[in-house]
Amino acid sequence: MDIEEISQILYKEKNQTLKTIPADFYLEAEKYVRELEKEIGKINNPRSPESKMLNDEHERALSDLETIFMKRIGKVITRATIQSNADKPISKDIEKLLPAEKLLYDLVLQGIEAAKTELLGPILYPDSGKTAVWPCIWASRQDPASGHPKEKTGEDRTATTGRKKAGTESGKNNINEEYVVVRILKNLPTFTGADGRNYTVSAEDVVVLPQLNATGLIKRNAAKLIAAGEEGSGERNFAKN
C-alpha cells in the first residue's frame, strides 16, 4: 500500500455511495504507516528534505485514513437509521461493510429499536408491556493474520449451549465467569447477547445468559439471578445460531 492507494479510496468515499474496500485495507494501512515511521526514524537529520517529505506523507496518510473511517461510519449510521423504519432490508450496501462496520450497523439498529421501545413505546403502545433490551458491546477476539474478528469455533460456543460439560473444568469455568443462570420475569423480544447469539426468552424461563446481558435484565427487573444449584432440571437454552 502507498499514499496514492489511500487517496483513491478517499476519493471514492467522498459521495454518499458506500463502496467496497479490500477486506485487509486497514491492516495494510497499518503496515504502511509503521514502515513510514521506521524510515523516518532512520534519518539522522530531522530537518532534511527527505525527513520532511516522509513526515508530510505520514501526516497525510493518517489524516486520509481518519477521513475514510469517519465517512464510512457516517454511511453505516445513516443506513441503520433508515433501515429502522423499514419492514424489510432496503439496501444491498450492507454486503459492502467490513466485519467491524457490520457489527456497528447491527448495534446501531438494535440501539434505535431499544430507544424507540423505551421512549415511544409507553406513548404509542401503553399496554404492550414490551421492555427495551439494549445491545451489549463486547471486545472481539482478533485474528492476528487478518486483523479481523475471529469466527467463533465450537469450543468458543460451549458456554452458550446452556449445558455444562460434565467432567470438563474449563467448561465449568466459562459458565461461572462469563455466563449466569437467571429466571426471566417477563416476556422479552428476541435480543442479541454479548456472545453474538440471538436469545428468545419468555416469563418464567430459566436460562443461561452472558453475564453482561443478565446484569442488564436484572437491573431492569426483567430477570432474577438463580444461585448455583437452584436451577434444577428447568434450565433451558434459548439461543438461536
TrEMBL record:
Residue ranges for the region (Disordered) are 141-172
Q: Where is the composition biased (Basic and acidic residues)?
A: 148-158
Q: Cross-referenced CDD domains, in alphabetical order?
A: GINS_A_archaea, GINS_B_archaea_Gins51
Cite the Gins51 C-terminal domain residue spans from the record.
181-224
Superkingdom of the source?
Answer: Archaea
Q: What Pfam families does the record tag this protein with?
A: Gins51_C
Official protein name in the record:
Gins51 C-terminal domain-containing protein
Origin organism lineage = Archaea, Methanobacteriati, Methanobacteriota, Stenosarchaea group, Methanomicrobia
